[in-house]
Amino acid sequence: MSSKGELKTLKDVLDFEVHGDRPLHSATHEEILSGKTTDVYFIRTMEILTHLGLQDKTVTAEIFPRKPGIAAGIKEAVNILAHKDIKLWAIEEGDSFEPLDTVIRIEGPYSEFAIFETVVLGCLASASGWATAAYECRQACGDKPFVCFGSRHVHPSVAPVMERAAIIGGADNASCILGARLMGKEPSGTVPHAAFIIAGDTLKVAEAYDEITPEHHNRIILVDTFKDEAEETLRVAKSLKQRLGGIRLDTPSERGGVTPGLIKEIRARLDQEGFNWVKIFVSGGLDPERIRLLSEAGANAFGVGSYISSTSPIDMTMDIKEVEGKAIAKRGRIPGLIHNDKLRRVK
């Protein structure tokens, strides 16, 4: 194996062993950067090209998406290739793209980046899919805030990647601690049903929450655990008064979920009792269509999980477009570079 630890040959692949006592099955940073999560056929490709003496030919490769979206994962892709002897161009995270737009261009000896095609495409595909779903939610929310609650739906090794991408796409914040911190934010979240179920009473938890929470913190209390949501809302509001920032509705689908009628009723009852400052935060199976519906009914903020976390990756493809400066392409593709005004030289 090379001094850098990168896989170079099929023998390196066969010599790599995974011990049975490994506690988590996700790849470490070191394994990703050494090529251990690549497709094995790239190792075979390098063996063939090396045998032919062609491994260091200068090529220009371009990465493009199959459908429109919002770019994320660019920084990871750039970081993976940061120490390679190549030139690199990329669009910025948060930029929009259309099908077949060039989002990354790489120029240099093929041996410098061949085994990283798999991981670079994976970083872009997943993160851009999540960012695009978050962008769709942002469009539905308008200027109302929403937080990404999707960590529980994905493997923990990629949860911060997903929630970071969601913020790039338009989420105001994330509940995953690492995901929020990666974007320089203080993670956002209220209190789960577990606390209320263990304590046995919504008001008991609300008052304890109020007592231990810093003054500046926005107190949002979940009100759908035991009793009618409107009844619990008023109990909490009358106790916390001006210190209550909002209530959260997460009524399960078994009870019909959160409906426009429920939001309208709670808003009216809060206003009638003089609690017009209390906001209504909604979560639970939200998608852009439901966000618009509940927003029109008076919801003030949203927590979105599975719509973002379960979205499909946006297929990304890498094509070699030049070899030693000569335009080339497989059949069905146009030879030569595809211009994109959004590309910026990053290396």
How would you characterize the overall build of this protein?
This protein is of the alpha/beta class and 347 residues long. It folds into two domains: 10-127 and 312-345, Quinolinate phosphoribosyl transferase, N-terminal domain (Aldehyde Oxidoreductase, domain 3), CATH 3.90.1170.20; 129-309, Alpha-Beta Barrel (TIM Barrel). 39% of the residues lie in helices and 17% in strands. The chain has a six-stranded antiparallel β-sheet. A six-stranded parallel β-sheet has the order 7-6-11-10-9-8. Strand 8 (219-222), helix 11 and strand 9 (244-249) form a beta-alpha-beta unit. Helix 6 packs across helix 7 and helix 10 (202-212) packs parallel to helix 11 (229-240). It is elongated, with a radius of gyration of 25 Å. The two termini are 27 Å apart. The model has no long low-confidence stretch (mean pLDDT 95).
Q: How many DSSP H or I helices?
A: 14
Domains counted in the coordinates: how many? 2
The radius of gyration is 25 Å
Name of the CATH superfamily of the largest domain: Aldolase class I
**Annotation, overall tally of beta strands:** 14
Secondary structure category: alpha/beta
The level of helicity is: 25-40%
Shape call: elongated
| Widest β-sheet, arrangement of strands | 13-12-1-5-3-14
Separation of termini?
A: 27 Å
Low-confidence stretches: none
Written as H for each helix and E for each strand, in order along the chain, the element string is HHHEEHEEEHHEHEHHHEHEHEHEHEEE
* Fold-level CATH name of the largest domain: TIM Barrel
